[in-house]
Amino acid sequence: MTTLLQVDNLQQTFLLQQGLRKVPFEALRGVSFSLQAGRALALVGESGCGKSTTARVITRMHEPTAGRVLLHGQDVTELKSRRALKAYRKSLQMVFQDPFGSLNPTRSVRHHLTRPLRLHQPALKRRQLQQQLEALLELVELGDPGMLDKYPHQMSGGQRQRVNLARALAVEPEVLIADEPTSMLDVSIRMDMLNLFRKLKAERQLGLLYITHDIATAQYVAEDTAVMYAGQIVEYGPTASVIDHPSHDYTRLLLSSVPDPTRSFAELAAEESDFRERADRIRQQSRAAGSDYEKVAEGHYCLRQAVTQQKEALC
Amino acid sequence: MNQPLLSIQGLSVDYVTNQDVFRAVDKVDLDIADNEIVGLAGESGCGKSTLAYSVLNLHRPPAFITQGQIRYRDTSVLDLPTASLDRFRWNEVGMVFQSAMNSLNPVVRIDRQFLDVLHAHTDLTREAALARAEDMMRLVDIPVSRLRDYPHQCSGGMRQRIVMAICLALEPRLIIMDEPTTALDVVVQREILQQIHELKQRLGFSVLFITHDLALMLQFCDRIGIMRQGRILEMGSRDDILHRPQNAYTCQLLDAIPGRHLFGRTWQWNQTEEAAL
Q1: ipTM higher than threshold 0.90
Q2: Which of A5, A42, A57, B67 is the most buried (most CB within 10 A)?
Q3: CA distance A243 to chain B (A)
Q4: Across A269-273, A298-302, B87-91, which has the greatest mean pLDDT?
């Protein structure tokens, strides 16, 4: 297995303006993981837990406060020259959450896909370009070449997200970061999209970072899962192991909140009337800074958080 | 069967454009009884929100209600004159809109937003209205001191609960919820829906619940309608939809529910949580 991307003890502190003072906010508190070719890692957590900040640091939209991001062993946070950055962006691409906001409404699909092809392969002939465009549509299962002349408003959310994916794949990246790629799509389309990600990951040997708040979808795409809370990874390991034997309370909280059609709220309210108190308590506890990870099973680790700190946090 | 609280009969809604007429809701029948939670599930564009807007007669051109009627108890909603319609909205039927957490005015403190609604719809004095607002905040478990905050100082889940509280302050008999939790993460979603369920048992109201998340709907609703292209394809109890779906499209939606392996699982929590208290 080749390690493509390695994230090492990433820290990110933002200064928030509060009145006249600036208050530090620790968005990332020591995040580490690695991505392998042909494998996917699901980064799971609620909004505000730092999962998108992680993506933004990796894509160099933010400078990290501390820590390193290594691509093939080379630290990319030190890349400065235009050329080096361009090469890095060719190896690493991103698909964003909002399929409506991430396409220019005044431009056709052809424009969106031609740009990355031209930017990274300036010598491309017109006929080759057309071939590549059609191949890209084929790849993301948008079939009909007539799609090339459509505009974003003429397409459904699912089709637009496929165009976004094609745009990202146009430069043949090694690493793909997908930030909540299905959360704005209808449930019925979500599955097709996840299957497409899985297929492409295998075919193109992509290292995929799948960022989501929905732990139930992680197993359709990702071999490994990391659960994040308040800027720390609280539990990580093979997806099946994390889901079947969750050992951090926050992971259990996430899993227990997945809508279960077989149990009505009438039953749940009777059985777990203290759900909200427990959820608050777990969130409080999970906020404590952790030092090291405890081994749960092969490759499966859980963050150890100081109990004294938990008590302090509760007071 | 007793007289339903709300009865929609043969309702059609058309969007009229220069080129043609698009029928968004096509001859839909729907009843909601007292204290019942009825769900409408379907993909975006299937007409479920359009149907919800019709109940409050909120449509503006180019949308027109072209057929059918809506009866709320003995009143025909579509025939109400403007003044009575204003009383009917919020007093009798409340609505929590999609991304409701953004429907609070960002530059007005939360207590003011309670007062606006209460003044427009009741004769309460300022003091009585404030007391009402405080009661409602307690009802949704938010500290009363938060009334002096601006919306942006509260988390998304909290804002959602505040919108619920404002809606409940007028004690409507029916609340329409259009994708109330779509923008929230799963834990907060579960907290809010469980709370609505408890409030419903305490206060007694009916809910028309709209979402594209069928799994959630099956947990929350007594009866469920599956909508597609403006029609209700299938209407049944949650048991019927879950175990005896009749329509191929319903089966397709059921198959698309993720996390099947998690269903029916029970959870063991770490001991420290009790110890820590």
Answers
A1: no
A2: A42
A3: 8
A4: A298-302
